[in-house]
Amino acid sequence: MAWSCPISRHARHFSLPRNYYRFAGYARYFQKAPQYGDDNFRTGTTFEQIRAIYDADHALRNAISSQLTRAELLLRSHTARAVVDVSGPYERYLEADFYSDSAGAESTVESCLRDIKRSKERHILRFGGAEEDLRRELPVWSAVEAWSFGTLSKCIERGDLGALAGPIANSLGVAHAGFASRVRALVYLRNRCAHHSRLWHHSVIDAGPTPNNVRTKAKRLAGNFDPRSVLDVVASLDDIVSRGSGGTPVLPVLIAERSADGAFWDGLRAPVSPKDHRA
């Protein structure tokens, strides 16, 4: 990367405890034409400008991670409640024909049991490690605490042969349509945050069908943003948490703190793929 002399010393000091390529993902947006091999920075670019974007993205991941934790806890609780209402607390939720699995993919029950067996929590271990005992005796309200967020999402989407998502959405007080896909988008966002991946200028492949009223309300606050923007998933996340627990939404805080930062804000609202070297 062709750092100009005035910022190279600062860049070296900053990058020592960080991965060079992580930071380079932000710097690409300030270079002239990396797709044509010109890695020089546009005139007037400073290291401080790029670091400000990097730091703002770090702060955003922290804020979203906290909100995602609230959403995950809500979804565990409401999923267990819905399973009990549909089929009772034992056995049935660990039977293959409770789920609408796709052919060739790992079954939802296999995912559930793998996570359960991996748990070291006493409320799981007390039932022993034998699969037969777990299937017969482990209550779903204990099992949901052992599942990864991804496994939980599968259960929400496929449980009761695909009909479980509706009761969970109703229990939370959110829109029924597309709810399972919205949860899947939260899992995707959580994984990016957990791996400290860039959110700025990131286009979410499967953002989920955020309800029109939720999206419209968010755009009144944030201005127009792309449907694959991280902001769209944040709006959906805020809706689920605020309706499910009355939690404080992240988006208004983000706007208050960051809307004046034009480059960062623009990169959230209208993500663009980085221009990288062409083969």
Provide keyphrases for this structure.
single chain; 279 residues; mainly alpha; 2 domains; two-stranded antiparallel ribbon; elongated; disordered N terminus
What do you see in this structure?
The protein has 14 helices and 2 strands. The protein has about 280 residues and is mainly alpha-helical. The protein folds into 2 domains: about 45 residues, no CATH class; about 220 residues, no CATH class. A two-stranded antiparallel sheet has the order 1-2. α3 crosses α9 and α3 packs across α10. The longest helix is centred in the first third of the chain and has 41 residues. It is elongated, with a radius of gyration of 22 Å. The two termini are about 15 Å apart.
TL;DR?
This protein is mainly alpha-helical and 279 residues long. It is built from 14 helices and 2 strands; from the N terminus they run ααββαααααααααααα. It folds into 2 domains: 5-49, no CATH class; 55-269, no CATH class.
Helix coverage percent: 55-70%
Structural class by secondary-structure content:
mainly alpha
- Whole-number mean pLDDT: 90
Order of helices and strands: HHEEHHHHHHHHHHHH
User: Which value, in Å, is the CA radius of gyration?
Assistant: 22 Å
SSE topology sketch:
Layout: H1 5-15, H2 20-27, E1 31-33, E2 38-41, H3 47-87, H4 108-118, H5 122-125, H6 131-137, H7 140-143, H8 149-162, H9 165-172, H10 179-194, H11 212-222, H12 230-245, H13 251-258, H14 262-269
Antiparallel strand pairs: 1-2
